[in-house]
Amino acid sequence: IELEPVKLLSTEDHLEHALAIERRRIRLGYEQVFQNLMQESNKEGDYYTFEEKDAVSTDLTHVQSIELVQPPHANHHGNTFGGQIMAWMETVASISASRLCRSYPVLKSVNMFKFWGPSLVGDRLVFNAIVNNTFQNSVEVGVRVEAFNCEEWIKDQARHINSAFLIFKTVNDKGELFTFPRIKP
Fold first, then answer.
1. Domain assignment of residue 176, yes or no
2. H or E stretch including 67?
3. pTM, rounded to two decimals
């Protein structure tokens, strides 16, 4: 179906249209970043000649953290601040990535961050992070967040409230990008 062009009548219409174009450009940029990462992982070279025995097991990168949501972590309705959850997610993902590079990784981007449901004051939040893949100079860490209130904790009935993929890079003392080892899922 061919759509008619949008008629921009006011200054506000022009501004909204320009913002929509920019959002689209950014979304398409994410696709290009993903394609670049995939091409980077398929390049030939010393990095990609690791034998399977030289690969690092992802089991070594698993990190779990538990946080108790307290009043300072929540708004006046008792819902946990999204930024607080993001900060906790970055911390646990950073620890996971650091188990590969034995250094302090730097957050490069956050992809597919989703709020699946709320958490409240008094909930216990369980953060699970593990390295999903390594690329030549970056590493992707997947984080899943589950919430439990007191009853759910006793019954082991988790509520999946957040997920995200965090991409990290690391530089050495000379400012050069660190090359991550291959991983074995």
1. no
2. strand 63-68
3. 0.70
